[in-house]
Amino acid sequence: MSAAHRRSVILGTGSELPTKVVTNRDLERMVETSDEWITVRTGIKQRHVLEEGKGNADMAYHAAVRALADAGMEANDLDAIIMGTVTPDYLFPSSSCVLEDMLGARKAFSFDVNAACSGFLNALAVADSFIRTGQARTALVVGSDALSRLLKWDDRTTCILFGDGAGAVVLGTSEKGERGILSVRLRTDGSHVKTLYVPAGGSLKPTNPETVQNNEHTITMNGKEVFKVAVRSMEEISRQALKEAGLGIDQVALVIPHQANRRIIVALAERLGVPLEKVVVNVDKYGNTSAASVPVALDEARREGRIKPGDVVLLNAFGAGFAWGAAVVRF
Ligand code: COA
């Protein structure tokens, strides 16, 4: 069968949120903020935070085990493990290698993809390409991040926004039929590198006592700029992905956007002309979980019965880089 007819299909999904919950009321005791301010500006009420002593792969593992069970597959059935993350367990090797070992996946190749909040969509695009070209028959795609590790907990402009979590999907190969990933579009704009970034801890500014003193290993962000570009970019790329799939927005049963801020999601839905009932919103419970946000929301939507066979689902994300993307999937 030629690659032109081959598609990747989502066979299973899973997610994991750490047990520790930090509410807006908890944050009121840590910084000068209020539940009301956070709720009105972001829609966030609480977020989950990874326990001390645990790493990213611990969350990814549970999400992956659930996705494999949902797909009726075992770790040794996997050809590839691709993980979107900016908070790997170690600077190297990749967290996907840590995950691979935890799962006992002995036949896979694995690597991480760094595209911040767009990490899952970028990882999905890479896995989809491997499957369509026949280099892999199956793949585990994970979005997992622990941004709590990169937060300055006394900076009220950032610490209220983020949370930790992991989501996973198992992809298989379909040689014919209508189901599967119909299109994926990705973009970046590197002129915005410093609009949202972690200044120290990389090769340009390695860790030293001064960088630690200055808190340069934490997230620095121009929130207003991110907000503005995010809405515009996600709308544009969603339309491109739909066009490539040969579908109109009216044919989309459910939109699963990156969960950064309720206001961003509402503005995006308005611009796309989609009623909010057709948009998944769980940012109130988890905050912005970076690469995990889209696969966690996808998993929840499936488990809540919001996605039926034949439904077309639009996924989109936006984050640091800036990097953004969209995918159209028929279930
Ligand atoms: N609690 C109370 N007040 C706060 C606050 C907090 N947690 N954070 C900021 N403020 C204050 C500011 O200091 C400012 O005070 P001032 O007017 O006296 O200077 C005021 O609230 C307004 O701040 P501003 O930054 O203009 O608010 P905003 O409406 O732009 O909302 C964000 C801030 C961060 C919520 C919003 O810009 C946003 O969500 N941006 C996108 C960020 C994002 O999603 N990043 C990740 C993308 S993947």
Which tags fit this structure?
alpha/beta, 13 strands, Peroxisomal Thiolase, Chain A, domain 1, single chain, 5-stranded mixed beta sheet, 2 domains, 331 residues, binds coenzyme A, 4-stranded mixed beta sheet
Describe the structure in brief.
With 331 residues, the chain is an alpha/beta fold. It has helices at 24-28, 35-42, 56-71, 95-103, 119-132, 209-213, 223-245, 262-272, 283-286, 293-303; strands at 7-16, 21-23, 46-48, 80-84, 109-113, 139-146, 164-174, 180-188, 196-197, 220-221, 254-257, 312-319, 323-330.
How much helical structure, as a percent, in the residues? 25-40%
- The CA-CA distance between the termini, in Å, is 22 Å
* Helical run tally: 10
The tally of strands reads 13
Rg is 19 Å
Main sheet: strands, sense, barrel: 5 strands, mixed
The outline comes out as globular
Average pLDDT confidence is 97
Number of domains: 2
What CATH architecture of the largest domain do you see? 3-Layer(aba) Sandwich
User: What small ligands are held by the chains?
Assistant: coenzyme A
Written as H for each helix and E for each strand, in order along the chain, the element string is EEHHEHEHEHEEEEHEHEHHHEE
